[in-house]
Amino acid sequence: MLAEPNAEAPGAHPAVGALLWVVPALTAIVAGLLHGPWFIDDAYITFRYAEHLAAGHGLVFNPGEPVLGTTTPLFAAILALLKVVGIAVPTAAKALGLLSMAGVVLLLQAFARRAMPRWTAAAMAVCVALHPDTAFMATSGMETASSLACVLGALFLALHQRWWLAGVVGGAALLMRPDGVLVIGLVVALALLRDRRRAWQPLVTSAAVFLPWAAYAMATYGSPAPHSIKAKRLIHEAPFGDVLSGHLGFLTQNPPLTVLLALGVVGFGFAVARRSDLLLVALWMGAYFGSLAVSGIAPQFAWYATPLTVTGIVLAAYGADQAVAAIQSRLRPDAPRWVRPTAASSLLLLVAAWGLTDVNWHSFRTDLERREAAYLEIGAWIAERAEPGEVVFVGEVGVLGYLLLDQVVVDSSGINHPRIHELRRDDLAALRAKAPPESVSIEGSPEWVQQVIDELAPRYVVTKYPWLHIGKIEDSAGFQALYDRVGPDNIQLIDYRVYRRR
Predict the structure, then answer these.
(1) Which pLDDT value is given to residue 401?
(2) Cis peptide before 388, with omega less than 30 degrees from 0?
(3) Where would you tag: which of 18, 138, 152, 154 has the fewest CB atoms within 10 A of its CB?
(4) In the 8-state DSSP scheme, what is residue 197?
(5) Contact predicate 79/50, CB 8 Å
């Protein structure tokens, strides 16, 4: 890979150069503040882990139950540390997301400046900063922005042959998310190509970061692999083709995204032809997309693909820049130097403005806010009445789990409770033994729900209708003899069910 000449006018004022870095990063923070927070249920799972770690219970969902149900131990540990020094976990998560997203914007601009004029690179960074996916990543409460910052940081350090540091940051990426192993592989591969004698350095430093955690996880949980991955592969199982097409659908779900994807394909072609350093970003994108496709987990949530959207904008910018340069060389080879960056930048900013009209995110956010508001009200209601240590069986675990820190919260997906995973797995196996597997719903039968209630005797059962097969469960004589329907008297919660054991 070769760094390409950065076609920019000489003698530019230093203050202008500084603004080209600062403005996009600040734009990402301001856009996130204006749009967020968009906390999703999964984020609250990690919040609960962080709260228990800060309280001295260890990295656990329920104290005394060593189960690794979060995929981001490093993010949870950082949140716990900030909690210890007095910063509330949700506030810390939002701050980390915003700062990490600003870092992502800066790193993408640094990559872009190795391949295109600085004004085009700055326009690309603004396009990233204004994209709805960026705002979501910054304010969802999840580790996605921090993970992506680690990935891009490791790749950028590797480009500069800072192998020791690239390995350290790659190890941090692996502790942020299991797919961080992809960036370690890319860094080591690049080291083998550029400086084979030092290729061991990033491997050693990434191992030095990860192996202490792996040893702790083996001793505590039995494996460094999060149990949540196994649980999600069961409850969101899907064939390879469906996963592949679903994620492609997320990348083309509206016209602005489709335009960016088309420009990105053009940019990838030019990157291959010119041996651009942007190929390293493209290789990571391909590896990440491949990991999603082979995961066997249905593309149920758009945020799985958001890192691809954000990083893909740099390839789209390169495509726009190179296409303008090619057209200019044919039609006006003697045009002033400012024409190329102005045309490419205008196209990117136009697509960015178009992307702000994304109705898919608006509808998603509305549903998200309504659901979160319902769970916040239900959780507060239960928290006032439940005794410490009482079992609460929930259809959706995040918000309720975070609000009920003193209770034993059991999630229906089995992400934080292996026994639920076993019951659901056995139930599905029994159903598939009697009928064609494709005809069996992934939700299984009401029997596994009834087994949970029989074995754990939860004090409260909370679910959104009709999850947990609650329509059938609540009609059974046995359930009616043990549980009363209770909960906040709010007509907005008509789709939710709260039951208390007598």
Answers:
(1) 95
(2) no
(3) 18
(4) G
(5) yes
- pLDDT (mean) for 325-351: 81
Residues 6+ apart with CB under 8 A from 350: none
Specify the higher pLDDT residue, 129 or 252: 129
Q: Which two structure tokens, joined as six digits, stand for 150?
A: 């680690």
φ, ψ dihedrals at 189, nearest 5°: -65, -40
Closest CA relative to residue 302, chosen from 182, 142, 157: 142
Would you state the pLDDT for residue 8? 45
Pairing between β-strand 496-501 and β-strand 483-486 as defined by DSSP bridges: antiparallel
User: What's 78-134 look like in SS3?
Assistant: HHHHHHHCCCCHHHHHHHHHHHHHHHHHHHHHHHHHCCCCHHHHHHHHHHHHHCHHH
pLDDT value of position 445: 93
Per-domain boundaries in the chain: 35-357, 363-501
Beta bridge partners of 65: 62
C-alpha–C-alpha distance, residues 240 and 237, integer Å: 10
Take residue 369 and report the two structure tokens written for it.
């806010």
> Could you tell me whether strands 460-464 and 391-394 are parallel, antiparallel, or unpaired per DSSP bridges?
parallel
The mean per-residue pLDDT over the stretch 303-321 comes to: 91
Q: Max Cα separation, the chain?
A: 86
Identify the bridge partners of residue 463 per DSSP, sorted by sequence position: 497
Q: Is the dihedral of CA 422, 424, 429, 433 positive or negative?
A: positive
Q: Are 184 and 202 in contact (CB under 8 A)?
A: yes
Tokens of 492: 């907005």
Describe the crossing of helices 132-139 and 118-130 by its angle, rounded to 10 degrees.
60
Pick 170 or 489 by higher pLDDT: 170
- The answer to whether the CB of 406 falls within 8 A of the CB of 415 is no
Rounded-to-integer distance, Cα 203 and Cα 168, Å? 9
Q: How many other β-carbons are positioned within 10 Å of the β-carbon of residue 229?
A: 17
